[in-house]
């Protein structure tokens, strides 16, 4: 039995490892036909550094194994956590409230704080809350009579169990079975891609997969780490970029940053970041729009910003949201990374109780992962990078949110443009799949448009210290968005894996729209920001 390959730092190292693996695979009966080489050859032409036939042969045959581990090694643990954990949410339900006025929202916000409720979503149409069946009546005593819940997910335990990758009748997981099903592996690339996006993937698999992409596309992909998590895991980033023109090579490296997995349980955000990553890499030199995009911009993807939280959702608790950092309260671990950045951080408004799901720390950047991301991004800008756009992927509710998150009483300087592009992104999504994404300011709570008038009504969750505000304000990433992906509550965070590809596709369409928009503007929006900068420096 061989343990999954972990280090693929350089191509020769891959060659050695894979050469050793190859006999096992051919023994398993993979006999690809000649036609299956064609796709790989086309890609070889686009990759001038590697065109040797044997290299592609073993890449095709063993890429899947490198990423997912050998079939025999994979079967023992599987990807599912201990079945005993299924009982964790046995008595839980997710209920929805239609909040219609600020008094109702204030009452719900206060009750959520008091009872440490797990608020799944809040939008101008609804507020979704997970809690024990037995706690529903206690909650209702704290709320106005008119506020009655409807049940959204009656059996949370079953829904949790359903999101882990399924196993086939033979006890093997879907991708393990596919490894020996040569017919499905048209080429190494499509094979890996199709299988990879059939299910949600573990951190180990994602990391191997990123290393494989770096090894296969060395001329356009660099893998780096932006720092370590609280528990010491690397937070990996892939930088993707094409040929820069003379002028662009000497100017700032205009960078689009895309992050996923800031909240552990929002698996669709990680799979979508991976889908975008995969799509732009494999479309380079094939699709004109993507080629142009990568020739003008560097794109940096961080699919798992909170690896401790993500790993914890696979091992122990599917619904874990925060990091796993120790807090001052021994039994309440974890910081909400989206309330951990310094901009708009306000101790009077933010949750100060470590047991709350939205606790971001006692001071800004106490959360290791948020602090490392900020340090890395600042250092990048000190070394010639300029963040022109930031997409922070989350779930769920289908929303495109623009700054500011911390308050509605201050308008961002380029609000019209932010809103215009946001509407464009939503439209690109709708054209792609028919899904509706709502566009609004991230400052809005459960009752839209009451917040600018008065700061006195509490939101369901205070919005200070967010990542998009920080990138927008501190690094001048002028197109900074938090995008909450599918769905609108049928499954919530427990979105089935057959949504991975459609969600990835609709976001890819949005990403192309973003590229088009930035290129039309030449990526430079003169005026507002420069003035804003000067004013602040004076
Ligand atoms: C909330 O509103 C939706 C749609 O507007 C409706 O279907 C649902 O029954 C409402 N729920 C409650 C508890 O009023
Ligand atoms: C990757 O790193 C190499 C060597 O440092 C550099 O030449 C190349 O431009 C980098 N590529 C990207 C996409 O950043
Ligand atoms: C800062 O960025 C530069 C250029 O990308 C890199 O060489 C350097 O190692 C970085 N420093 C830190 C502390 O990350
Ligand atoms: Zn989130």
TrEMBL record:
Q: Where in the cell is it found?
A: Secreted; Vacuole
> Signal peptide: which range, if any?
1-27
Q: Which PROSITE patterns match?
A: CARBOXYPEPT_ZN_1, CARBOXYPEPT_ZN_2, PEPTIDASE_M14
Listed A to Z, the keywords are:
Cell wall biogenesis/degradation, Disulfide bond, Metal-binding, Secreted, Signal, Vacuole, Zinc
Principal localization reads secreted
**Cofactor(s) this protein cannot do without:** Zn(2+)
Q: Which GO terms describe its biological process?
A: cell wall organization; proteolysis
Q: Which GO terms describe its molecular function?
A: metallocarboxypeptidase activity; zinc ion binding
Gene3D superfamilies assigned: Zn peptidases
Residue intervals of the Peptidase M14 domain = 199-518
Record keyword Lipid metabolism present: no
Query: What's its job?
Result: Inactive carboxypeptidase that may play a role in cell wall organization and biogenesis.
Family membership = Belongs to the peptidase M14 family.
Question: This protein is called what?
Answer: Inactive metallocarboxypeptidase ECM14
Q: What is the lineage of its organism?
A: Eukaryota, Fungi, Dikarya, Ascomycota, Pezizomycotina
